[in-house]
Amino acid sequence: MIVTKKNIEDTIIEAKKHPMDHLLRWDRLPHVWCSGCGLGSVLSCFVQAIANTGIDTKKIAVVSGIGCTGRASGYLNLDVFHTTHGRAIPFAIGLKLANPDLHVIVFSGDGDLFAIGGNHIIHAARRNADITVICSNNFIYGMTGGQLAPTTPIDAWSSTSPYGNVEPAFNLCHLVYSAGANFVARWTSLNVRRLEKTMEEAILNKGFSFIEVLPPCPTTFGRRNDFDTGLKMLQYFNDKTVIKHDIDPKDAPIIFGDELIVGKFVDKPDQPTLDDRIARISVKSKK
Ligand code: SF4
Q1: Ligand 1 pocket check for 219: Cβ under 6 Å
Q2: Per CATH, the architecture of 27-286 is what?
């Protein structure tokens, strides 16, 4: 072969291709996330997990709401829906009921899912709707300027708690488990391999599957709370994380300064799902 500038360039382009390229929309990159943010790592685990499941990508739908995490859907080369604030869960349930063959995954943030969308998520868990929910908890409303959220740890500083937070935070894993979720896990964005594996399991699990992911948010949470770089927060995760599987999520609250419990807390497959119950009554109604 004659070596030309063109075929050297083509070889370089080919060598630079990443095995997950086909799952990302390169025309939408670079992303909007801040330097030091952990959301890129979470998205990277997610696309790898999707590839690992072996599911036909035509049978996957990803739904997100508003906020920093909500922007993830726009970067995925899948059928994705960027919905209004707090409404990712009902949108996802509607998709699943209309097309039970779909694997429907909600990928959104703590403010979207547990504040504005809080009512939707508890009822989705109660119904054991067959969807997977990946909630990135950055302890704050990030995109809107760092306001106090229901996940902000007690005593933490935010733009609307300039003297420290006086409200206890939700333990998201405990909340969804109490409501009826059959798969519940938590990892930080530092636990990339474990997070990736758990995402794969959650996507393949039948029933309401919930993963809480903790990424560093140096810009709106960290800089007010002694973590002004992503690295400082990752170091904190590294120092404080303790892995405990198969525990009651109520025993894993997030209290800053204490040990940070992560792991696969609950995995109870084969519980009847909302789709199963609907399929049962539609058979009855046809008799
Ligand atoms: Fe990430 Fe926080 Fe910046 Fe949002 S505000 S992109 S969560 S670092």
Answers
A1: yes
A2: 3-Layer(aba) Sandwich (3.40)
